[in-house]
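Page 37, continued from 36.
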């Protein structure tokens, strides 16, 4: 087997050894149910409460009880969008989300439409950024929820969440942010942001898959999606996934003091790839904001080539990447994010996304810069669009 380079950290990050070690006891002898009133239950409950404190500390939440553990970032977003809107529907039935949200937010909002809510999609500019004034313009008397993501997992752009929060606060409207691509990756502080609810997921910062969290500011009303027992303060029924929650807590504990060093190291690699790959390949469009982006995101659209073809040929060379969002890459459709940014269907089909992590090195970037140009050249030689472009003197 040749060189293996994992550059799909936006889909999921590798589990840190320290996280795995923290989880193991709860897959063995410490198997108790946190709801049970005996020693086995007490040990599990203490572990869950400890993880809750660590996750709260990661995002600057003063009260650990504001953390609700879920099965994923998707569940956190569903709970926030549907739960906040339904809990406040006596005030109105209008929700606002941005056009570039993750499908767990967009489709939750569309489900609300089926329940009689009205939906406004706020546009973005060519770099995927929401103008806070567009949010202000979309607000109505019956608006009961605004949801705008903190960081776009596909193009990496960071949204002006603090500015939008000021507008929603003025209008007394609950504001949720999907911070799945940001929490544990860059510094996140809910007090400074001014939001009312925030979603995160463990597998975005070297914790386990299948666990996430939703922070809801104390006093903000939210309707549970799952009916059943009184777990998670009555806000999310079901026996807690103790090993995964412990892993999420450990990943949060490891990330908090190390975030600035991680950002510096990964950003340096990102900047190399953003600069050097277009120079070596040619006819490449860098997507997303050039500076206001998450550290590991390198998103491109390569002209005259389909993203899926590049993905498969890179995989044959031992390089793992995505073509757009990991939640849409199997759908073989142009990314809704890129289309909302004003890119043509043709260009958006050439999307390729490299997401770097703390395990990546300069040697990994060197390897990509070595194998990518011949792959693109080979694919372009098979492209009728490229042949037409060359014939026209391009």
């Amino acid at each position: 087997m040749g060189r293996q380079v994992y550059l799909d950290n936006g889909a999921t990050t590798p589990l840190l050894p320290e996280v795995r070690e923290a989880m193991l006891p709860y897959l063995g002898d410490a198997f108790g149910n946190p709801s049970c009133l005996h020693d086995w239950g007490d040990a599990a409950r203490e572990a869950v409460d400890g993880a809750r404190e660590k996750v709260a500390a990661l995002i600057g939440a003063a009260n650990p009880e504001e953390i609700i553990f879920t099965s994923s970032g998707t569940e956190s977003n569903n709970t926030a969008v549907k739960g906040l809107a339904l809990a406040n529907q006596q005030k109105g039935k209008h929700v606002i989300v941005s056009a570039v949200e993750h499908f767990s937010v967009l489709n939750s909002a569309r489900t609300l439409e089926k329940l009689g809510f009205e939906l406004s999609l706020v546009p973005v500019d060519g770099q995927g950024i929401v103008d806070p004034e567009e949010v202000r313009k979309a607000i109505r008397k019956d608006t009961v929820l605004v949801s705008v993501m903190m960081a776009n997992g596909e193009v990496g752009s960071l949204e002006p969440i603090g500015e939008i929060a000021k507008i929603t606060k003025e209008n007394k409207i609950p504001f949720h942010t999907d911070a799945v691509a940001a929490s544990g990756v860059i510094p996140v502080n809910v007090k400074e942001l001014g939001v009312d609810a925030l979603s995160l997921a463990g597998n975005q910062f070297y914790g386990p898959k299948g666990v996430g969290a939703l922070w809801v500011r104390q006093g903000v009303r939210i309707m549970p999606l799952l009916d059943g027992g009184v777990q998670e303060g009555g806000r999310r029924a079901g026996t807690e996934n103790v090993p995964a929650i412990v892993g999420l807590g450990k990943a949060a504990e490891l990330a908090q003091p190390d975030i600035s060093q991680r950002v510096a190291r990964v950003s340096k690699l990102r900047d190399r790839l953003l600069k050097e790959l277009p120079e070596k390949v040619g006819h490449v469009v860098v997507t997303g904001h050039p500076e206001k982006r998450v550290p590991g995101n390198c998103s491109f659209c390569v002209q005259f080539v389909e993203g899926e073809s590049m993905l498969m040929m890179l995989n044959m060379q031992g390089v793992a990447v995505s073509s757009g969002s990991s939640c849409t890459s199997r759908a073989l459709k142009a990314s809704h994010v890129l289309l909302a940014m004003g890119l043509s269907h043709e260009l958006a089909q050439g999307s390729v996304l490299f997401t770097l992590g703390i395990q990546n090195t300069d040697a990994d970037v060197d390897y990509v810069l070595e194998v990518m140009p011949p792959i693109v050249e080979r694919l372009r030689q098979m492209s009728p669009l490229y042949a037409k472009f060359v014939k026209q003197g391009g």
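The chain has a mean pLDDT of 95. Flag for discussion at group meeting. The chain has two domains: 5-12+259-391, 17-255.
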